[in-house]
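User: Hi! I have a protein structure encoded as tokens and I'd like to know what sequence might fold into it. I'm fairly new to this, so please keep things simple.
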């Protein structure tokens, strides 16, 4: 007679704990890679959030921080030559943050040096990678408060 495996469906609390642990480990890997390039995790995250030009206020929303905090982050990125502010064509009072070529290069290096993250993804087979991506795409709009 064959045995039937029983699986226990994780509770919401168990899923939240697992997601939090994965997020924390990812963030530690990201922060360590950013630090190797003289960036705080907030500065590196800002580079990732300005792949296309973004108004300062929208950048604050993407980073989940106050607009006054974004000013300091962008000041540092400008000083390093990784981003710049431009006046909006539609409203010159609005400042747009634009990533520089050097900023794109540094962001690529940071992402490339996230060795633990790469190692964890490389341990997944194609089906698992597709499933993980599909789940992330499904839950992100709800978690981020964006329309589904």
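Assistant: Happy to help. Inverse folding works backwards from shape to sequence: for each of the 148 positions I chose a residue that suits the local structure. Here it is:
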């Amino acid at each position: 007679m064959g045995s039937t495996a029983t699986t226990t469906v994780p509770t919401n609390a168990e899923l939240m704990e697992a997601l939090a642990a994965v997020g924390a480990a990812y963030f530690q890997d990201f922060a360590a890679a950013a630090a190797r390039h003289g960036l705080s995790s907030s500065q590196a995250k800002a580079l990732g959030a300005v792949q296309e030009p973004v108004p300062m206020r929208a950048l604050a929303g993407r980073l989940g921080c106050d607009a006054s905090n974004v000013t300091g982050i962008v000041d540092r990125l400008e000083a390093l030559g990784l981003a710049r502010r431009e006046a909006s064509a539609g409203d010159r009072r609005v400042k747009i943050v634009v990533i520089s070529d050097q900023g794109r290069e540094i962001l690529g290096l940071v992402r490339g040096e996230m060795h633990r993250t790469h190692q964890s993804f490389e341990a997944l087979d194609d089906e698992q990678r597709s499933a993980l991506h599909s789940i992330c795409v499904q839950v992100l709009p709800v978690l981020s408060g964006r329309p589904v």
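A useful reference point when you look it over: The helical segments are 12-35, 41-49, 56-63, 67-79, 101-112, 115-122, 126-144. Feel free to ask if any position seems puzzling.
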